């Protein structure tokens, strides 16, 4: 797949979900580097920086995307010859993909320890990391039941329901607005994350914060499964995560909107769940309370003040 094809698929959401987007970006950089016909290091760097910028511009919210791109790209500035630069960049891209896949599997193992035999689990959207926990618990022989939301407008819940059904897990498929109604039957909510800020807020699919609120009210655990590269270093510097707002066409057709001249369709793709409503964040490096987000960014992402000069567009003002 060409770089432009990958960028187009991320933009159109054919490739979606924060972890998958991150791996697709790393894969695109790897393949772009392999194909690069560059006369010298400067030309190669120029080509790769342009590719990185294109990838980062595709979707604004999932921090896994700029984090993956930075992990692959950042050491490039210290290279002194084309051959080594190219070799090292390709190694870093492949290492990121491997690390990401292993992280999801490890999160599944750790997350399954938070599910008990007989539990009813609610999940929202389609998160590899959240599903890894549920699938692992099922594989370990636990008798669990799941409530999976529909996830309007893009219906990612259909993918979740199919995955759960294929695994033989008893699943209730519900509209998003039924989450509070069913919360009294739920023991634990598990969702993924697109970004986690330094104050432990979780940015995930629109509707997540309502589920967290309903869980809080009902004294149900609300747990987030997320790889460490979902934490957002830029938030240490006070930057906010930009919440993507997608086309109104996803909700009402142009023809229908023409009949409603005083109506504006709003379509935010993600929302923010404050740390107060989050019990735990399950990462591949272990389980953290949301209050420890700063420590994760410092220790797991090895973020330091040098990163303040990052040139790539990391996050933008909300
Ligand atoms: O909100 C979404 C996907 O949104 P979209 O469909 O708009 O990309 C997922 O919950 C997170 O990305 C985490 O997923 P994962 O755990 O797979 O990274």
Automatic annotation (TrEMBL):
Q: Which domain of life is it from?
A: Archaea
- Gene Ontology BP annotations: L-methionine salvage from methylthioadenosine; pentose catabolic process
Q: Which UniProt keywords apply?
A: Carbohydrate metabolism, Isomerase
Q: Which residues bind substrate?
A: 16-19, 59, 204-205, 230
Which reaction(s) does its UniProt entry say it catalyses? alpha-D-ribose 1,5-bisphosphate = D-ribulose 1,5-bisphosphate
Recorded GO terms, molecular function? ribose 1,5-bisphosphate isomerase activity; S-methyl-5-thioribose-1-phosphate isomerase activity
InterPro entries linked to this entry: IF-2B-related, IF_2B-like_C, Initiation_fac_2B_a/b/d, M1Pi_N, NagB/RpiA_transferase-like, R15Pi
Please state the Enzyme Commission number of this protein: 5.3.1.29
Positions annotated as active site in the UniProt record: 125, 194
> What does this protein do, in the record's words?
Catalyzes the isomerization of ribose 1,5-bisphosphate (R15P) to ribulose 1,5-bisphosphate (RuBP), the CO(2) acceptor and substrate for RubisCO. Functions in an archaeal AMP degradation pathway, together with AMP phosphorylase and RubisCO.
Family, according to the entry, reads as follows:
Belongs to the eIF-2B alpha/beta/delta subunits family. R15P isomerase subfamily.
Additional information? Reaction proceeds via a cis-phosphoenolate intermediate.
Q: What is this protein called?
A: Ribose 1,5-bisphosphate isomerase
Organism name: Methanospirillum hungatei JF-1 (strain ATCC 27890 / DSM 864 / NBRC 100397 / JF-1)
